Amino acid sequence: MAAQNGNSENNGEMVVTPWEVKGKVDYERLIREFGTQPLTPELLGKLETYTDKLHLQIERRIFFSHRDLDTVLNLYEQGKKFVLYTGRGPSGPVHIGHMVPWIFTRHLQEKFQTRLYFQITDDEKFIIDNNSTLAETRKWGYENALDLIALGFKPENTFIIYDVQDMDLLYDIALKVAKRITFSTARSTFGFQDSTNIGWVFWPAIQAVPCFIHKKLTGENVPALIPAAIDQDPYWRVTRDMAQKLGYYKPAQIHCRFLPGLGAGGKMSASMPETSIFTMDPPDVVKKKIWNAFTGGRGTAAEQRKLGADPSVCSIFQYYYYLFEQDSKALAERERRCRAGEMLCGECKRDIVEKLNKFLEEHRERREKAKDTIEEFHIKRK
Amino acid sequence: MAAQNGNSENNGEMVVTPWEVKGKVDYERLIREFGTQPLTPELLGKLETYTDKLHLQIERRIFFSHRDLDTVLNLYEQGKKFVLYTGRGPSGPVHIGHMVPWIFTRHLQEKFQTRLYFQITDDEKFIIDNNSTLAETRKWGYENALDLIALGFKPENTFIIYDVQDMDLLYDIALKVAKRITFSTARSTFGFQDSTNIGWVFWPAIQAVPCFIHKKLTGENVPALIPAAIDQDPYWRVTRDMAQKLGYYKPAQIHCRFLPGLGAGGKMSASMPETSIFTMDPPDVVKKKIWNAFTGGRGTAAEQRKLGADPSVCSIFQYYYYLFEQDSKALAERERRCRAGEMLCGECKRDIVEKLNKFLEEHRERREKAKDTIEEFHIKRK
Predict the structure, then answer these.
(1) Cβ B175–A202 below 8 Å, yes or no?
(2) Helix, strand or coil for residue A158?
(3) What φ, ψ does residue A247 adopt, rounded to 5°?
(4) Can you count the helices (H) and strands (E) in chain B?
(5) Residue A199's closest chain B neighbor by CA?
(6) Per the CB < 8 Å rule, is B171 touching A167?
(7) What's chain B's Rg over C-alpha atoms?
(8) Of residues B238, B262, B265, the one with CA closest to residue B250
(9) ipTM value of the model?
(10) A120 in reach of chain B (CB within 8 A)
(11) Digits of tens for pLDDT over chain B (382 positions)?
(12) Does A165 reach chain B within 8 Å, measured CB to CB?
């Protein structure tokens, strides 16, 4: 909520709201402040029994916190299924960081054989951004859906919701939710101010709807599990407060970290496209972005060979960690070689450029094919 | 906004908001306070050229105030058509008072050959009333639409909008409107408070939509003229402020008075069904309500014969004035006989019971037939 909460001019201080993430994110502190639960070994053990082995993103604690995942798994054990729900605010093109939780969502869908509701919030992006138009957010909604589908989701159990087009499906539930949220609650949860427009004030009710829509469509009352970045948590807190009064399960969540950007300190923002790799970036653009990325390297090659570098602050290393080195032994070896000065940044960058461009090339092929099937995913077509 | 603005416990003081009308309504004061325009002889002259003769409700100043009616007629003179827009909050059955402006709307539609958009605000009635359900407001929406259609509207040029079902048609325009209304403006216009729910806060954007929807459906940009009771004026003030920025004409309005209720002082409310005549009231119920109605009569027949009665405070006389004595000479004669003590309340009540029951019987026949055609009026069917 950049323009609204007055925090935009902070000095590197952590800000995590549904509309803004700034500063160095302290995830332990978020668990405390948001009141979510860490993933315990016991819970991971239970998860593992259903997923053969833990997904890389769990193993590496990219997903690190939850609400009621234990409840959902206990219900599952008793034969009660659940649905997945996540989404995308279509303000522009999709980058690698956006896809990280979607890849994990795809894994959960496959292992638990569940339905996914994917909400494209073209209304939200229009209402919160003074300069956006509905034509733009609709266009990005379509483009972003192609990226989702390219990750391997199937139309049989993936239901894409485009808010503006599909509002007649959502509105009755949104009204029931909205009736239970006072302006006062919305203000304290989301930081709304007198200058906030009334569409934005209402909007949290719409983000709640996919938690509950499965019952409307199928008659089955099952919980929703939401894999998403932790900045979205405030929405679900409000939704959880009223779910049972409306006759639904509380939505459960599993929260992930943000893939850091390529700038110094992991900085990344929509206004700095050079700090993210977008799915439509051609190979030379990817190469250029990676070569300009902030690393943990030393001033000179000689110095680095002697003293080693620091992968803990390196934006490139995070790309390996999040997605591009799935072999944990190889990742550890890369880290060791980096710290020991056995490998310079150039080598590491060349490797990631190659991996990225290979990944993106294949992704774009699948993305192109998705144009033929995208309509089959639309919730209104079902 | 009974529960919200703290005015519910007033002492007969006038309160006129979109959600509450209380106390003795001073229409001259409303024109001043709301900043609307009185109907001038010049404007009425222009209206008359298009309507053969002035409608009874204009002649008797039941419609008494306007915004931009002159602009709409000037544009019409230049060949630019307009559309009509009015509506109904389906919180319960329709009574005679609700139908008064609809009858006038039907007249305008016929004389100007224009399209009518009729909004049934089942969402609003749900969101503002703690005890209502969507099933109820939907049911009343259907029932109320039957009463509208029974007044002679034709499906060719009458488009009924049911908000909850049709929100996918309305939502894009509602978002554009909402983006231009801050919470601060909404609060000062509608008296919203911290305890107001966020659905209610958003709702004014939805009431604005039918002012603009004609352009979306047909490509024609024409103004909307809204015949409605004056309590709805605050909505249009906000809508007018932004209309041109969104590329539309400002909606024009023509405002009517409220048919007074049958209680003392013209009191009428949904919680006192005995003070209104509903379209589904059987003859004996109508008779009972009329016999219990507040009149300007004296304590005894002898006294009344001697001193005469006072039609200016009589709720029954208002029924003749608004709808049931269209012959102004006959009305004047009735008033004279009343004042002179030549006619007692019993005679006058017997007459109105007969007229009311005849009107309602015919209305209910047309209402029954409307069940066959109601779907043809639905905007989504077009």
Answers:
(1) no
(2) strand
(3) 90, 20
(4) 19, 9
(5) B178
(6) yes
(7) 21
(8) B238
(9) 0.91
(10) no
(11) 333 333 334 456 777 776 776 777 788 888 888 889 999 999 999 999 999 999 999 999 999 999 999 999 999 999 999 999 999 999 999 999 999 999 999 999 999 999 999 999 999 999 999 999 999 999 999 999 999 999 999 999 999 999 999 999 999 999 999 999 999 999 999 999 999 999 999 999 999 999 999 999 999 999 999 999 888 888 888 999 999 999 999 999 999 998 889 988 766 666 788 999 999 999 999 999 999 999 999 999 999 999 999 999 999 999 999 999 999 999 999 999 999 999 999 999 999 999 999 999 999 999 999 999 999 999 998 8
(12) yes
Residue B174 in contact with partner chain A when CB distance is under 8 A: yes
pTM for the structure as a whole: 0.92
A9 touching B, CB under 8 A?
A: no
Contacts of B174 in chain A (CB under 8 A): 199
Report the distance separating Cα A342 and Cα B144, nearest Å.
Answer: 80
CB-CB: which of B171, B176, B186 is closest to A198? B186
Question: Is B175 close to A127, i.e. CB distance below 8 A?
Answer: yes
Would you list the domain boundaries of chain B? 2-258, 264-369
Please check whether residue A164 touches B, CB under 8 A: yes
- Strand A224-229 versus strand A83-88 pairing type: parallel
Which of these CATH numbers, 3.40.50.920, 3.50.50.60, 3.40.50.970, 1.10.240.10, describes A264-369? 1.10.240.10
Cβ atoms of residues A218 and A114 within 8 Å: no
Query: Cα–Cα distance between A307 and A305 in angstroms, integer?
Result: 6
Q: What is the largest CA-CA distance in chain A?
A: 67
Q: In the CATH hierarchy, which fold is given to the domain comprising A2-258?
A: Rossmann fold (3.40.50)
Size of chain B in residues: 382
A179/B199 Cβ within 8 A: yes
Q: How far apart are CA B262 and CA B295, in angstroms?
A: 8
Nearest CB neighbour to A127, from listed B166, B179, B184: B179
What amino acid occupies position A158? T
> A205 vs B182: CB contact, 8 Å cut-off?
no
**B-chain residues within 8 Å CB-CB of A184?**
194-195
Beta bridge pairs of residue A66: A37, A254
d(CA B310, CA B304): 10
Residue A287's nearest CA partner among A344, A363, A354, A347 is: A354
DSSP-derived secondary structure for A11-34: SS--EEETTEEES---HHHHHHHH
Closest CA to A317 of A362, A378, A260: A260
For A253, the 3-state DSSP assignment is strand
CA of B192 to nearest chain A CA: how many angstroms apart? 9
Q: Hey, what are A220's tokens? A: 């089955």
- Please spell the DSSP secondary structure of A43-91, one letter per residue: HHHHHHHHHSS--HHHHTTSEEEEESHHHHHHHHHTT---EEEEEE--S
Return the DSSP state at B248: S
